[in-house]
Amino acid sequence: MGSAKRVCVAAMLIWVAAVSFCVGQTVRGKPTPHVPTATELLDKYAQTQDKLKSFILKSEDEFTAEHDLRFLPNQGERRRGGGGYLGEVRSDGTRHYRSEKLWEKRRAYLPATKSAAQSDPRYNSYLWDGKRVFQYQRSNETAANDRLFLTPEAHEEARGEHIISTNRSHVLLGYFDDTFDRAPYNFRRIDNELKQAARLEVLQAAEPVRGSQCYVIVAQTAESRYKLWIDPQHSFHIARAEITRGGRGVKFGNREEISLHTYLKNVHFEKFGDVWMPVEADWGYQTKFINNGFSRADYHHKIVEFTLSPDHKLLRSFETDEIRKGTNVLIIGDRGGSYTWQDGKVVDEDGRVVDVDKLIKAESEKVKKP
Predict the structure, then answer these.
(1) pTM
(2) pLDDT tens column, 18-31
C-alpha cells in the first residue's frame, strides 16, 4: 500500500513539473509588448496636432468658481459664482482668431444665461492676421462705444500665438495653465513643454481610460509635475491629465502662489477625416495662495461645431470685417492720439488715414533720443 502511494505521488509530481514546464515555455515564448518612449508618444501627439492646424470651431462651456483673495488689495470678501462662455476659434496654423461671450449669474451687467448671451451683441475678439494684433470690444450700443486695441507690426509685442493658446478650448488643444510663459502672456503646448523636462518616462503598465488602454507619461519640469494618459486608439490625444505646479522641492516665481493643480478628465472624441479630435471634457484648477487664499474653478467644455481645413480665404476668417465704422482705436505704443476706424483703416481726427507702423517707429525713435 505504501509503495502504491509513493508511485502515485511520484506520478503527480512528474505531471505537475511537465505542466509547469509547458506553461513556462508558453509565457517565455510570448513576445513582450513594446512600450513606446515618452518622446515617441509626444512625437505622435505632435503629428496629430499638425493635422489639426487649420480649423474653425465653435464651443460652449459652463463653470462654477470660488475664490478668497483677501490677501490682495481691494478684495474684501470670499466669492462664489457660476456661468459660462460661448466661443469661436479660427486658425490656419499661422493666423489666429478667437471671439468670446461671457454669461454669469451674479453680475448684473452681464447676460445671466446662455440663451441671453446668444442674443446679446456684446463680445470680445482677438485677431492675429500675421502682422498685427486686433483686440476688439463690441458694445451693445453704437460703434462710438466700441473699442479697438491695435498692436502694429512695428511694435515689439506684435505676435499672435497667445490667441490660440489661451482660447476657451485651449486644454483640448494641448495648452494647460501650468505651461504659462510669463513674458508675454502665453501658454506653451504641452508636448513642447515636456521635451524640456528633467524627468520624462512612461509607466510599463497601461491604464484604462473610458474603455481605451492608455500609455501613462510621468514627467517633472523645474516647476511642475505631470501625469498624462495618452490614448493610442484616438490619435494619441490626451485622455486624462493631472498636473501640479509648486509644492515642496519645486521652484516657482510667483511669491504669492503656493501651488496650482490642474485636471482634465471625461474626454470624449469624434473623428474628422482620418484624425480624432477631443470635443468634450471636464477640466478645472485649484490654486493655493499665501494667507489661506485660494481660487478654483470647474468647467464642462464642449465643441459644438468643428470644421477641419476650411476655405479661410472664402470665409474671410482673418479679415477685420466685424469692426464697425466709427469704433474708437487705441494704437499700442502711441502716446495719446485720437483715432477711429473707417472702412477698414485707422484715421485721425481730421479723417486722414494713419500709417500705424510709421507712427510707432517714430515714437520709438523719440524714446531712443536722449
Answers:
(1) 0.84
(2) 434 333 444 455 56
